[in-house]
């Protein structure tokens, strides 16, 4: 079983080995909560009028999963530029922008003040044990966004 972790990590999006230490995965599991899984299922199985406005597409889910590979213990993820994402995920820049907006609208992410950095909703995904303080930070950031 331990041999799995000794093999070099290959990026699932590019099939390349990491060039830098920062490109290596920060976790070996998907840090999803039961509420996060229910939210994902709800947004991927809508019908009728609701389907047109808030259903997540494959592109949205691919971007979310990519962002989750960048999660750190502060529950933030710094993502590459849209041009780099375009190449890594094989999506257009418009798809990336649309997907980011949908992920923010559906409370998966919130933009932080740092460049290309997003705070990931700890209600759905989190890394580490300090979920309570991460939820407090999420509420604080959400309140700041509403007031700006």
Rounded Rg: 16 Å
What percent strand? 5-15%
The low-pLDDT segments are 1-9
Mean pLDDT: 80
What strand order characterises the main sheet?
A: 1-3-2
Brief sketch in words of this structure:
This protein has 148 residues and is mainly alpha-helical. The protein is built from six helices and three strands; from the N terminus they run αααβααββα.
Describe this structure in words.
It contains six helices and three strands. It has helices spanning 34-44, 48-54, 58-68, 82-89, 93-105, 131-147; strands at 76-78, 109-111, 117-120. The longest helix has 17 residues, at 131-147. It starts with 33 loop residues before the first helix and ends with a helix.
Q: Layout of SSEs?
A:
Layout: H1 34-44, H2 48-54, H3 58-68, E1 76-78, H4 82-89, H5 93-105, E2 109-111, E3 117-120, H6 131-147
Antiparallel strand pairs: 1-3, 2-3
Helix pairs in contact: 3-5
Key features?
single chain, 148 residues, mainly alpha, three-stranded antiparallel sheet, 6 helices, globular, disordered N terminus
């Amino acid at each position: 079983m331990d041999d799995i972790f000794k093999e070099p990590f290959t990026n699932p999006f590019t099939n390349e080995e990491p060039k830098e230490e920062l490109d290596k995965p920060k976790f070996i599991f998907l840090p999803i909560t039961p509420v996060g899984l229910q939210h994902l299922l709800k947004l991927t199985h809508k019908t009728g009028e609701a389907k047109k406005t808030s259903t997540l597409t494959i592109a949205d889910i691919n971007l979310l999963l990519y962002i989750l590979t960048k999660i750190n213990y502060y529950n933030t993820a710094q993502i590459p530029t849209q041009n780099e994402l375009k190449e890594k995920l094989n999506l257009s820049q418009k798809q990336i922008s649309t997907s980011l907006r949908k992920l923010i609208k559906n409370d998966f992410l919130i933009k932080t003040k740092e460049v290309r950095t997003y705070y990931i909703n700890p209600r759905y995904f989190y890394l580490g044990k300090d979920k309570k303080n991460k939820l407090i930070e999420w509420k604080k950031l959400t309140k700041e966004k509403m007031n700006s």
